[in-house]
Design a protein that fits this description.
Two copies of one chain form a homodimer. Helices cover 37% and strands 16% of the residues of chain A. The termini of chain A are close together. In chain A, the strands form two sheets. Chain A has a nine-stranded parallel sheet with strand order 3-2-1-11-8-7-6-5-4. In chain A, strands 9-10 form a two-stranded antiparallel ribbon. The longest helix of chain A has 21 residues, at 101-121. By secondary structure, chain A is an alpha/beta fold.
Chain lengths: 263, 263
């Protein structure tokens, strides 16, 4: 069984509520940790979360190193993470600017290198998140866990790790191999499910248990790699806005309890 | 420059025409090789293609080893390939039946093993096609070139190889590495392009040059691995049905001429 206190609600799951209501609903539901996205923040968010007694597991997102102005924006993201008390800034690394994936990967590595001292000074760990390969053209040239781990290892720093998101990595035939070598490098673990059929490349994700990801198996591998931190539930699907919020959060808690059980 | 006679039109690109018209249009356009899909065939297709003086580069598809009745259907696919004179039967290997990807991969390997003697007797090579990981839940548990090559190598047979489809593999950070070890194992090479944005998981493919795949680079890697056979243009996109067929085929020929050029 998974300790229920490890549940963190990634607030993109309830983006339709807005941060203030999401914080209130989480408190009422007994969910003690949240992970906001930057567009949900205003000047009052850190105080609001703190006053509600909630912890923050990560801030999403920095990255997009292949875009103009990335350095300034990423330092702001670190500032915001530090203000929230988020131990991890999730990096969505950015797509290639043309057809050259190798060049994009080089640009990304250089961007992380420039950001790292600033993140370390602020006590924020950079979490390199490999995205699903279907997102390579629009969001990230880093699309496998193996590549993200190799990139993280280059820096040999406690302030760089990877984000293992079940949705993005479950298909990989090398997953077991890579997780077996990931000790000390997992900065965050995200769960949701892969629906069959999947009809949307970004927002077609399912609640845990509704798809084909063997979450108990993946969770066991992540734990075997030594990760014992927060587990974020991040489900991006507009259909969730149709569910009454308290019902949705109760459902998420119930499903979360089963991600560590034998199937 | 690519020898234009290496162009084979995968007939899914013009599925809206039907096989008879597609054959006629190819002949008129000076395209000498085609690759049909099984649903396009009737009892007269082999004669029709032969009488038009066209060669066949492959038949799509066998596989779906995780489905009931796969063995019988796959032997029929081999029969059809042999009748067409198709040297290769493309294998789309099938999705997991539940959440167990390892089990699906084992089932797939066993299915290929059972089919192989029949294929060899008929002079048909089985081409294991890794599909894009976004197709894992609905079409194939084999989603990386590395995995397809490892599977093909197990059989150590001239009648098993892999299909390198640019669309399915271009994102892979290990692509160069795997192609460098693929000598003798490439049974077919397919080209199209990855559009940005991509809005459909199956039928959102682009004509060569309209997307972000560095086709000259990939073509050079495939050729360096010793592949000098037909190159199939396979573009699955309903928008192509809106283009006058002769115009579409002329456009495809022009774009094909550039897939071997420096970018």
């Amino acid at each position: 069984m998974i300790d229920p206190s490890r549940l963190s609600l990634n607030l993109m799951t309830v983006d339709h509520l807005g941060l203030a209501e999401a914080v209130e609903r989480c408190t009422n539901a007994g969910i003690g940790t949240v992970a906001p996205w930057r567009h949900q923040l205003d000047g009052d968010s850190a105080r609001r979360i703190r006053d509600a007694g909630l912890a923050v597991s990560s801030l999403c997102r920095g990255g997009f190193f292949t875009a103009p102005g990335a350095d300034d924006d990423n330092r702001r993201a670190v500032d915001e993470a530090a203000e929230l008390g988020a131990p991890v800034l999730v990096l969505v690394c950015g797509p290639p600017t043309g057809k050259d994936l190798d060049a994009a990967r080089t640009t990304i590595a250089a961007g992380i290198e420039r950001l790292l001292p600033y993140a370390a000074d602020h006590g924020v760990r950079l979490g390199i998140e490999p995205l699903h390969p279907m997102m390579v053209g629009e969001r990230s040239a880093i699309v496998t866990l193996g590549e993200a781990l190799a990139l993280a290892r280059r820096f040999d720093s406690p302030h760089v790790g990877v984000v293992v998101d079940a949705y993005h990595v479950f298909w990989d035939p090398e997953l077991d191999h890579h997780l077996a070598g990931a000790a000390g490098l997992i900065a965050a673990y995200h769960v949701c499910d892969w629906l069959v059929p999947t009809t949307d490349l970004l927002a077609g994700r399912g609640l845990m248990g509704d798809g084909i990801i063997d979450l108990p198996r993946l969770t066991a591998l992540v734990e075997a790699a030594g990760y014992d931190g927060a587990i974020e539930v991040e489900v991006i699907n507009p259909a969730l806005a149709e569910v009454p919020p308290d019902e949705l959060l109760a459902d998420i808690k119930a499903r979360f309890a089963r991600i560590g059980s034998a199937p």
